[in-house]
Amino acid sequence: MMDKAANQQQLAVPPRPSASPTQNQPLLEVRHLQKFFPIRNKGLTSRIVGHVRAVDDVNFSLLPGQTLGLVGESGCGKTTTGRAILRAIDPTAGSIMFRPDGQPPVDLAALSHAQLKPLRTKMQMIFQDPFSSLNPRMTIGDIVAEPLIIHRLARGSERADLVAAMLRKVGLNPEHANRYPHAFSGGQRQRVGIARALIMNPSLVIADEAVSALDVSVQAQIINLLQDLQQELNLTLLFIAHDLSVVRHLCDQVAVMYAGRIVEVADTQTLFASPHHPYTKALLSAVPDADPDVPMNFDLAGEVADPANLPSGCAFHPRCPAASPDCRSNVPELDEVSPGHQSSCHRC
Amino acid sequence: MSEAHPKLLEVQDLQTHFMSDEGPLRAVDGVTFSLTRGKTLAIVGESGCGKSVTSYSILRLIQPPGRIVGGQILLHEEDGTTVDMASLDTRDERLYRIRGGVASMIFQEPMTALSPVHTIGNQITEAILLHRKVSRRQADSLAAEMLTKVGIPTAAERLARYPHELSGGMRQRVVIAMALVCRPQLLIADEPTTALDVTIQAQILRLMRDLQAEMGMSMLLITHNLGVVAQMADEVAVMYLGRIVEQGLVREVLKRPRHPYTKCLLRSLPALSSHRQRLPSIRGSVPALHEIPPGCSFHPRCPSFAAGRCDTEIPSRIQTCAGHHVACHLAEVDR
Questions:
Q1: Mean pLDDT of chain B
Q2: Interface with chain A: mutation pick from B238, B276, B283, B286, highest number of A CBs within 10 Å
Q3: B211 contacts B149 by C-beta, under 8 angstroms
């Protein structure tokens, strides 16, 4: 039963070449991505009076099979970045080069919605809240089958077999496929959300705070599941989160965002062992350690910059302990600190 | 001060149940703990363990169909009098004197804890005017003084502002100012930083610690975050399905946990295990309150469960070393 389903899944989506010359080329390459939201005058004219610079010149690339963690506090633009990549919202400027399965690269930012549709099977999203991201009026079997119906990939018993195999893969009992989401716990619902994202056999999965709403014991189960599935299906993961310990555990690379920009990017070990940017340092020191003998050594005043009214120069300068006049006037570039480690700071 | 009881709060065998179609839901089922004057006790656990219901019970904020069905909540005031909060009538004037005066509370969500249609000045002075005999003008200056103390710049001007004009971190500072303006002896903080970003959380935790040192109040901290427990509390009680499973000094409990649930909880934290290895998780999920397993309620998820004992007998509380209590049949063997 399972083998048949697995075979059919292979038929529905051609297998990925295991060792191809494209292996070392990034699956996703984001260049100068911008997303501005207009602020309109409240009067009759609804004239645009300014912009919320939610994402401003974001650059990164992601190799196949890797996990990039996008971290930052609320309003830093991490979710907007994820949504712009999937074209759930249209970016203001920039390019998003996507190379699924060794196919020639396409710029997602330049495609029309009709041109995007076939590519949507290759990129999927897992959402934060397992309570609001599942339709309460659909059975979990229908929820997981819906992408197959929309993209006309499988029908009849073939579809049912694929759904059953997928549910089993995420650790749910396929016999429960005709139950509704309310009958499941938070962790089980998140498994349904993962099954829905993976049934298309995507290359790129964007997980937006996928484990944030879960209790610690259940969170560990879902993290393990994501890791297993990533290995098994060779998934490339953009993991958007605010919890640094989860990111540290799960990601190969980490990009730290502040006020719409990436301020530092490095492989996980390097970033946590030797953070470079003052904001990254502050962020790491703000996490309360579960060891009472490791005292919290946090000293950062002020609040996150308002993306509708950004400070001049480096957006972090009003809070930065090392700010200089240069920081007030010039926006720092993302410069290489060491191979693979970039940071945007005038002072370091 | 000399006649004051060394304990500020003693909760004995507290039971708070919610009446439902499936019978009573035992949200809090026999909880016993005490809080020493000037110290911080953290109650930690996952959703549905009863930690919030415990804190709401102490201030008698439980609404029907919830009801305190048993136990005592003894509040020893500074003047030597003792009030059993559990036995007070909901209309008892002592309850009004205590709430917001002797004991106050900080809630998780600062936007819902504040009224959107009143200025923050009015909301803070309301508490002062209810509990102290001062004029409106004196109340205003006390409120401004308190706002300065919680780190809000230009406090006097901010009194005329509405909550929506402030950021999340600033709102939580207002909620703290509101709770502390009458200089309570007991502060109950229910997930005070859960809705905040990490850098703001760090600021608020530090503020709470500084204010506690300055004002000398005792704190009951409700949280799910073991990091917050480690940094803030003197003692900790770990709750699971309405019961305390382990209790003791923070360093003792977090460094040498005795109960399998506490052990699992600590081990499943991503930061403590190494990069990309499998996290030791706890199998299954927390059962619903209407299907609490018999015996030790943790036994279906417990890695070291003993058949015939754990699934039939409710474990009683035993002391493993001074001040460290564990409710587990296997705790002695475990050492």
A1: 90
A2: B276
A3: yes
